[in-house]
Amino acid sequence: MENKDLALLTVLPKKLDQKHDGLYMKRLWQGIPGIERTRKGRLYATFYSGGKGEGSENFVLLLKSDDNGLTWSDPLYVIDPPDKVRAFDPCLWIDPLGRLWWFWSQSYTLYDGRAGVWASVMENPDDDDAAWSTPIRICHGIMINKPTILSTGEWLFPCAVWKCRDSEFNRLEEERFSNVYISDDQGKNFRLQGRADVPDRAFDEHMIVEKKDGSLWMLVRTKYGIGESYSFDKGKTWTPGRDSGLGGPNSRFFIRRLQSGNLLLVNHLNFTGRSHLTAMLSEDDGMTWKYKMTIDERSRVSYPDGVQAEDGTVYIIYDRERYDAKEILMAVITEEDIRQGRCVTEKARLKMIVNKIK
Known about the structure:
The radius of gyration is 19 Å and the shape is globular. It is mainly β. It folds into three domains: 1-142, 6 Propeller (Neuraminidase); 145-247, no CATH class; 250-358. The strands form six sheets. A five-stranded antiparallel sheet has the order 1-5-4-3-2, with no helix packed on it. The protein has a four-stranded antiparallel sheet with strand order 6-7-8-9, with no helix packed on it. Strands 10-11-12-13 form a four-stranded antiparallel sheet, with no helix packed on it. The protein is built from two helices and 25 strands. The termini are far apart. β10 and β11 (155-160) form a beta hairpin. It is 3% helix and 41% strand. The chain has helices at 22-25, 335-340; strands at 14-15, 31-37, 43-49, 59-65, 77-79, 85-94, 100-108, 117-122, 136-139, 148-149, 155-160, 178-183, 191-196, 207-210, 216-222, 225-231, 242-243, 254-257, 263-268, 277-282, 291-296, 301-308, 314-320, 327-333, 349-356.
């Protein structure tokens, strides 16, 4: 097997032994987090680290909290491919069956032009003895953001083969788009549904929202902020990409429909670089964003991911100063907090430490 094909190897989640796996505890940097919450209230968080920065030594970690995020465990599991293969850009998702999906990407060296989206599933994430399934490779590319469940039941997976970064190994010109994969059998099988082409996109990191009229709205990270594209046939075809007008410092954002029917967008607002991470609420399906609440005004805060609990509480995870403060942080807020522009409910908490390298 050629070195570049090592990225196709199946890598099992490894349960960490705190006494014997010190390599994973002595990290030099960390960032790019994801979060999920089980039906019984357990929180899971993931992020990646390894080596001196983004590259072939990267591995993905998973930890949990059983007290609503007040305290967190040390890393419990790791995905660490062999040789010069990196694991990176993880994502967590609880599907409608209550299963926890742990997604990550594998690439030979920093980027081999192909990469690959992998997933392992925990059937009972509230069980302390729950096991991970044998990982499956869904497709070429990277998927850092959560899937979208359509009103008709299909699951859409936002996977991208980067256009903004080339490689000497593989040149998949026909696949270098903001791709959409679909599963209509609850994650047993996946197939390419369609591709969007948004000008000046940077690492894609796209997310999909189903509008109230049934159309799909894709937002994509771009050099000018956030681009957009629409689909009116469940993601098979997409309109020409354009500027959404939402702005941003060329960084990851988070968007999701809340239980109320309103849309939540977490993005940088009035920013200087990656600063002023802000939660915004839309009551008109994304036409306007009337309510805004600053989550973290500091510099070098980035890469939000979020989840909403059954009681309406929203948990937002993000990183801060990946190479200096080395913090993974969390905000806990409600729609009412966003409407008031500050923490007004008893549940609201900001700048909570999920993990910090000392």
